[in-house]
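Batch queue: ligand-bound targets. Current item pairs a single chain with adenosine-5'-diphosphate. No template structures supplied; prediction is de novo from sequence plus SMILES. Inputs echoed for audit trail.
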Amino acid sequence: MTMRVGVVGGGQLARMMIAPAVELGLEIRVLAEQEGMSASLAATQVGDYLDLETVRAFARDVDVLTFDHEHVPQPVLRALVEEGVAVHPGPDALQFAQDKLVMRARLAELGMPQPDWAAVASADELQAFLDDHGGRAVVKTPRGGYDGKGVRVVSAATEAEDWFTALAEDARGGALLAEELVDFTRELAQQVARRPSGQIVAYPVVETVQRDGVCAEVVAPAPRATGRLAAEAERIGLTIAEGLGVTGMLAVELFETADERVLVNELAMRPHNSGHWTQDGAVTGQFEQHLRAVLDLPLGDARPREAWSVMINVLGGPADGSLEDRFAAVMADHPRAKIHTYGKAPRPGRKVGHVTVVGDDLDDVAYEARAAAAHFAD
Ligand SMILES: Nc1ncnc2c1ncn2[C@@H]1O[C@H](COP(=O)(O)OP(=O)(O)O)[C@@H](O)[C@H]1O
Ligand SMILES: [Mg+2]
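Prediction returned. Tokens below.
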């Protein structure tokens, strides 16, 4: 019988699960937030993932429930698990990707290296943290942030006043996350896939470049990653996946410091932008791997197929005309480039697609990937 995967959320991550699902002969269904979303071609239902009845009805006809994002509330997830629905990643793991304070506390228990941090419930507590950390720090809203929204570098507690006001108005109360401002030399990401029955594989650690809080480029594997650095990143990824009981794809965002330490920034329990290169550059792409993992099927080889892969995000798209208008030009000029678009309307800064080039010379691959992506940008 055909295995059926249900994906909650209709964004581009759900969309990019569709092709490998078709190739593997799986049935994929998407619960989309609205009509016309990125993954609408597999959307069998449109509805609100906050509503238990809606998600329950969607889950009834699938063998496993997984996600395009981390926002399905814990009570909804727990109710489904109690009713016998296979939910991967499950709520016990997912809580650590839903709340950065909960994550920091658990990673401390696991002995993972991370920036100095504190839960700050008031401006006074934030000021005390600032005073202890040279007068500058990063403040984050623990829940719901993405692409740098919910992250602020501050040098005075007053700069987070609006967030403390919002906290005071939130019935759940709680605190903000204060972190030491890490003087990193670069950002890295480590991906791991894990099956419910325990099999686990690690991808090579990659370098990510963010601009304005948004991932702009990924180079895989991370250049100049010494054996020690790569091994440490892998150890962190495997320890977190096992320690938190993650099922499916896990991405661990990391900071590398000048003294070659690696610190954990945050976690994502789903396919991740830092792994888009795997579609064209690895033996098993992360979207296929996620499907295999959540279905508890044997995992695929996570090694690169070529020496280097460079992935460039297309943000916003062309000011005039559509992305599609640029296709022919990119294809003509860059036959090596693999073009991925998400069926989303271009808006400034919005992730609407990406371009990947793979090959054996890093300078050449990076140059071509950037040149191909630039066609879409201007
Ligand atoms: N403690 C920190 N020190 C320095 N830079 C940070 C710190 N935390 C986050 N950043 C920067 O902000 C970006 C977004 O922060 P992150 O916690 O990953 O939020 P998001 O959930 O929006 O991705 C990071 O990729 C990094 O560039
Ligand atoms: Mg991040």
